[in-house]
TrEMBL record:
It comes from the Bacteria. GO terms for molecular function: aldehyde dehydrogenase (NAD+) activity. GO terms for cellular component: cytoplasm. Signal peptide: none annotated. SUPFAM superfamilies: NAD(P)-binding Rossmann-fold domains. This is NAD-dependent epimerase/dehydratase family protein. InterPro entries: Epimerase_deHydtase (IPR001509), NAD(P)-bd_dom_sf (IPR036291), NAD(P)-dependent_oxidoreduct (IPR051783). Residues 4-235 form the NAD-dependent epimerase/dehydratase domain.
């Protein structure tokens, strides 16, 4: 099959490329704003094309594809939500329009756990849970709005097989430097996460979340592009990450702190441009539902090869060692 992966050089996109090209499975075109200067020959080769989803004509890039996988996303600048909206929402709308105009029969889109509405307890939710966003953070609003775009496109174009993937937090070692820059900003330097330098970790009271390794997400996206499935799929590895797991991963003692106070402090630091993530994103983290991934396991034959703790450990261990790759967004 021929796949076109938009946003192919990022965290999820790079994982989709690895899976889709393994053993020469599929013909893959990788689309990115900055195509990497990589040699292309032999098994697993990706044909790279440069394009910006906000302005370039995407139809020629998508023509002849059996499926389009759209995972392009711009998290920063969080201080300029009109800029992220242009890429994340209007860009996604342009991708969907191009899918229709190019006659592509299937599109797989990256949604997120953050699109879901808050949950009051830890009972696992299915894909039927409301998608009004976990908080007022721009990331959550954009993911929730895109769900409405997907609904509208499905209604208008029932001939196109549309799949929306809703993963938990996606981690891998090669994205460590990128994720440090995105979320922590200039204050958290790579050496500061060396375990011997972390005696105590403050953890907001009640914090619990799910994670999934990018490699497992790449397998799920590729399966969704290849199989005759439609609709939404939750993706999360087994187990919850709590204060206990964080302490074990960092070999440090933990102390509970007020979530509200932590959110206020984070907001203040964000307004000072000391950190990359606003307090509203922590609010979302504290409210996220627990995902049931049963549909992915059943219909995609998906079994994560890594636990959520494994995924988080990969990125945490990669930060002090400046983990990254030769792909532009994932540079060290």
């Amino acid at each position: 099959m021929k796949f076109v992966v938009i946003g192919a050089s990022g965290n999820i996109g790079s994982a989709v490329l690895r899976e889709a090209t393994a053993h020469g499975k599929h013909q893959v075109v990788g689309v990115a704003r900055r195509a990497p200067d990589l040699p292309g020959s032999g098994e697993g080769t990706v044909t790279w094309r440069e394009a910006d989803v906000t302005r370039d004509d995407l139809v020629p890039l998508l023509s002849g594809a059996d499926a389009v996988v759209h995972v392009a996303w711009k998290f920063q600048p969080t201080h300029a939500p009109e800029e992220t909206w242009e890429t994340n929402v209007l860009g996604t709308k342009r991708v969907l329009e191009a899918v229709h105009r190019a006659g592509v029969p299937a599109v797989v889109l990256a949604s997120s756990i953050a699109a879901y509405s808050p949950a009051a307890d830890d009972a696992p939710v299915t894909e039927e849970w409301a998608t009004d966003g976990a908080s007022t953070a721009a990331y959550c609003r954009e993911k929730a709005y895109n769900e409405r775009l997907f609904d509208s496109f499905e209604a208008a174009h029932p001939d196109v097989r549309l799949v929306r993937m809703r993963p938990a937090f996606v981690f891998q070692r090669s994205a460590a430097s990128e994720q440090r820059r995105i979320f922590a900003g200039p204050l958290l330097r790579p050496p500061m996460l060396r375990k011997e330098l972390i005696p105590l970790v403050p953890v907001p009271r009640g914090l619990r979340f799910q994670a999934v390794h990018a490699g497992d997400v790449g397998r799920a996206f590729t399966a969704a592009a290849s199989r005759d499935v439609r609709g939404a799929f939750n993706l999360a590895a087994d187990g919850l990450i709590t204060r206990v797991e964080l302490g074990d991963l960092l070999s440090a003692r933990t102390v509970e702190v007020s979530p509200r106070l932590t959110s206020h402090l984070l907001s203040a630091a964000w307004h000072l441009r000391a950190v990359g993530a606003p307090g509203a994103l922590l609010d979302a983290l504290m409210r996220l539902p627990v995902l049931s991934s049963e549909r992915a396991r059943t219909e995609l034959d998906w079994e994560p090869h890594h636990s959520g703790v494994d995924a988080l450990e990969a990125v945490l261990s990669g930060i002090p060692e400046r983990g990254g790759s030769s792909l532009p967004p994932l540079h060290r």
